[in-house]
Design goal:
Layout lengths: L12 H13 L10 H6 L2 H6 L16 H16 L5 H10 L4 H4 L10 E5 L11 E7 L2 E9 L15 H19 L1 H9 L19 E6 L8 H14 L1 E4 L1 H14 L3
Parallel strand pairs: 3-4, 4-5
Antiparallel strand pairs: 1-2, 2-3
Length: 262
């Protein structure tokens, strides 16, 4: 599903003209598309259209409006602080307000350049991860599959061991991993639905476990103790599953705005 109201797979005649003029102005054939001066002048739609997935691109320019983003962070926190809220309520506040920078912050756990966000990305007919983040670096594209669980309930037991909610998230991700390993061809077909102007790179056609990352979000900071964090580190090391809480998501969303990194 697209993130935006506008379909960025097509440009208007005016946008195409501006694009061509700016490419000529900055000698585009000799410069990187991500030349700072060029990016500052290109229309928003052109930045999206030039990306691999125009309607799922997370642009850096969004961080310019810090007042709006801080307001969206506050709305996210208000929903999070409501003890009746579930993961569905949290997803709703993100998607209804297009507060996609909150999900984009999850890539702070990794080192990526270009970033894309997919919601309700289908894994066959069985699974629909809450979010998929695709990042790009010198090694190609990598994939972060996100499972959101409830912020309240049996998140962690008294001794710090994972409770039912975290265990449920881990179990779900293990099912995704099995599907990805055996049926990655269907994932490639799904990506084709989002790609308009460019061929999919090789990472999208052949399964590579080293490019796959998995993330479970559950509970609040108050649920986690030293033993919980130790188990989370072990989980990341042994199974490639990162486990974090919603307060960390909120903290990093604020830090992204302050740092200007998105």
């Amino acid at each position: 599903m697209n993130l935006y109201e506008r379909d960025y797979s097509n440009l208007t005649e005016e946008e195409i003209t501006i694009k061509e003029q700016l490419y000529e102005k900055y000698s585009f054939e000799k410069k990187s598309f991500y030349s700072i001066a060029l990016v500052r002048e290109l229309p928003k739609a052109v930045l999206h259209n030039n990306s691999l997935f125009p309607n799922n691109y997370l642009p850096y320019y969004d961080l310019r409006d810090s007042d709006t983003l801080n307001l969206l962070n506050q709305r996210f926190l208000e929903v999070l602080n409501n003890r009746t809220s579930t993961e569905i309520d949290i997803k709703r506040v993100i998607e209804d307000n297009r507060a996609y920078h909150i999900m984009g912050e999850l890539l702070r756990y990794y080192s990526f350049g270009s970033r894309y966000l997919f919601k309700q990305f289908k894994l066959g007919t069985q699974y629909v991860p809450d979010y998929l983040l695709v990042g790009f670096d010198s090694e190609g594209h990598s994939f972060v599959w996100v499972e959101m669980e409830c912020p309240y309930g049996n998140v962690v037991m008294k001794n710090g061991e994972f409770g039912e909610i975290i265990r449920k998230g881990i179990s779900q991700i293990k099912e995704w991993k099995c599907f990805l390993e055996s049926s990655f061809h269907s994932v490639s077909d799904e990506f084709e639905k989002y790609c308009y102007n460019k061929p999919l790179p090789k990472e999208f056609h052949k399964y590579d476990s080293t490019l796959m990352h998995f993330l479970v979000i559950a509970g609040r900071r108050s649920n986690f103790n030293d033993n919980t964090y130790r188990l989370a580190r072990e989980s990341k090391k042994d199974s490639g599953i990162t486990i974090t809480h919603y307060d960390k998501v909120y903290d990093n969303a604020k830090k992204l705005i302050n740092d200007g990194l998105f």
